[in-house]
Amino acid sequence: MENTLLLGAHMSIEGGLHRALERGHSIGCTTIQIFTRNNARWAARDLMEEEIRQFQMIRAQHSIHPVFAHCSYLINLAAGNEFYEKSIAGLITEVLRADSLGLPFVVLHPGAHMGLGEEEGLIHVVAAINQVIEATSNAKCKIVIENTAGQGSCVGCKFEHLAYLWNHVTNQSRLGFCIDTCHLFAAGYDIRTEKAYANTIKKLLNHVPLSSILAFHLNDSKKELGSRVDRHEHIGKGQIGRIAFRCLLNDPRFVSVPKVLETPKGKDLAEDVVNLKCLRRMVKKS
Q1: Where does residue 281 rank: exposed (0-12), middle (13-18), buried (19+ CB within 10 A)?
Q2: Distance between CA atoms of 172 and 145, rounded to whole angstroms?
Q3: Contact between residue 228 and residue 186 where contact means Cβ atoms under 8 Å apart
Q4: Do the beta carbons of residue 67 and residue 60 sit within 8 Å?
Q5: Exposure of 158 by Cβ count < 10 A (0-12 exposed, 13-18 middle, 19+ buried)?
Q6: How many domains in the chain?
Q7: Is the entire prediction scored with pTM above 0.85?
Q8: Nearest-CA neighbor of 219 among 247, 201, 239?
Q9: DSSP letters of 94-139?
Q10: pLDDT tens digits, one per residue of 98-141
């Protein structure tokens, strides 16, 4: 089981997209998450053919699969403000960039309703995703919604929100979910014991299909259960503890689902090395 464990971390693309693959390979990642562009800017230049070729060549050499992308944090599909159309255009760009690189999906924060209310926010998200899927109908890349911690007016922190998106997006074949453990815990879903983990996953799967869960973000939480504060901590060093991660890593339903760290780290990736080693030790030998 350990040899096929899809475990990695978010990797920097500083120096070129292919450098993320090299960084991931250097610490034994079998899957990674990347940004395909500067995540703090709206504007993005087109990818050059040589960049795409080099990325695909290095990925094949290192056998890292899947590699998936995270969308810019600027995108907000839940608010009906002046950035709504810009966010839709931004998501179209994210999907097309990822698709050109051969990435299976992009992870997206659904956004904040900014006072409109949860229902209106979700309606905006659905309309935007439907528009993006239609505009990228020739692409294979999926849009994967990440559950949120519930900070401010963010939607996506409740399983009911995820169910609403799943049930109202027209083309479900282009939609999926990424479950972040820190966000899950901060939103009030306990996973600290085997029983709590089992109950929370049961609730999740009562709202969305198992097949729709396409990735996990493995992060401990600096803040307590239900804090609605998104503060990631190293594995086993936060309020969640190790049992939750041991349960998830050994859950046969999710063995083929990629799992990546988004924990704090420096350029030498030393923290990733420690966290990955900790996680690998949790995997039961088959």
Answers
A1: exposed
A2: 12
A3: yes
A4: no
A5: middle
A6: 1
A7: yes
A8: 239
A9: HHHHHHHTT-SEEEE---B-TTS-HHHHHHHHHHHHHHHHHHTTT-
A10: 999 999 999 999 999 999 999 999 999 999 999 999 999 999 99
Return d(Cα 64, Cα 55) in angstroms, integer.
11
pLDDT band for position 3 (50/70/90)?
A: very low
Q: Are 214 and 108 in contact (CB under 8 A)?
A: no
Rounded CA-CA distance 20/261 in Å is 14
Q: How many helices (H) and strands (E) does the chain have?
A: 9, 10
Pairing of strands 232-233, 220-221: antiparallel
Query: How far is residue 242's CA from residue 275's CA, in Å, rounded to a whole number?
Result: 11
Distance CA(138)–CA(126), nearest Å, equals 20
Q: Which two tokens stand for residue 277?
A: 């080693």
Q: Which CATH number belongs to the domain containing residue 144 in this structure?
A: 3.20.20.150
Two tokens, residue 254: 């999710």
Res. 2: pLDDT tops 80: no
Q: Encoding tokens for residue 51?
A: 């960049």
Q: Which domain holds residue 42?
A: 2-282
Rounded-to-integer distance, Cα 257 and Cα 261, Å:
13
Summarised one tens digit per residue, pLDDT across range 13-24 is 999 999 999 999
The pLDDT tens digits of the residues spanning 81-104 come to: 889 999 999 999 999 999 999 999
Tokens of 150: 């519930």
CA distances from 33 to 54, 89, 166, 233, 242 (A): 17, 22, 23, 18, 22
